[in-house]
Amino acid sequence: MTREEIIQEFHKIYYDEGNRSSIINSTRWMGVLLQKCPLDLWIYQEIMFEVRPTMIIETGSLHGGSGLWFAHMLDIIHGSADHFVLSIDINADMSRPDHYSVLFKQGSSVLPEIIQYVSRWVEKYKTVMVVLDSDHRANHVYQELELYSKFVTPGSYLILEDTNINGHPVLNGWGAGPMEALEAWLPKHPEFEVDKSREKLLCTMNPGGFLRRKIC
Fold first, then answer.
1. CA–CA separation, 78 vs 175, rounded Å?
2. Which among 7, 33, 200, 211 counts the fewest CB atoms within 10 Å?
3. 3-state SS track over 21-78
4. pLDDT in tens, 54-107
5. What is the tally of structural domains in the chain?
6. Which residues form the domain of 184?
């Protein structure tokens, strides 16, 4: 096997598609389900330490594990300084963890009233990072890219998750998803560039999805 084939095969094994992603569905942060690859989380903390966002916007809260993880990383980076995680999900979940700097907001991420709500929070923070991980249908993802990219401050990142589905290399037959939305959206937005250096750990759930907003 070639090096690339080995990487792709590991990716498929880790994703554990045939067993409904039992690996992903058993990964936890401080006891809370967190459906992200630890290799990606390591890259996230490198980005966060470099960029030092004071606000992180996340779409797709699920059980709240990633929102809690982001908050803990910001605690480490900023200490007692003001910082905030806004996590948006269409579903309510009263079991999500409680943390002083995380707000779980219910609603569709693309509704005008939700965007207005996000805009009011963004005004209060200097450096904003965005992570998109909600509905993975291409049309929805494209809308999110259009709506949330404007919140990303220059030099910071927009991370589009799960670009690996629909055969990139997992979940063949899913249909147009995040990768296809990105391919349609990115050429229209030269203010963003794909940072391939963030894929240095070889296996990522977000191939091509680490997008840096240019400073100039």
1. 40
2. 200
3. CCCHHHCEECCEECCCCHHHHHHHHHHHHHHCCCEEEEECCCCCHHHHHHHHHHHHHH
4. 999 999 999 999 999 999 999 999 998 899 999 999 999 889 999 999 999 999
5. 1
6. 3-213
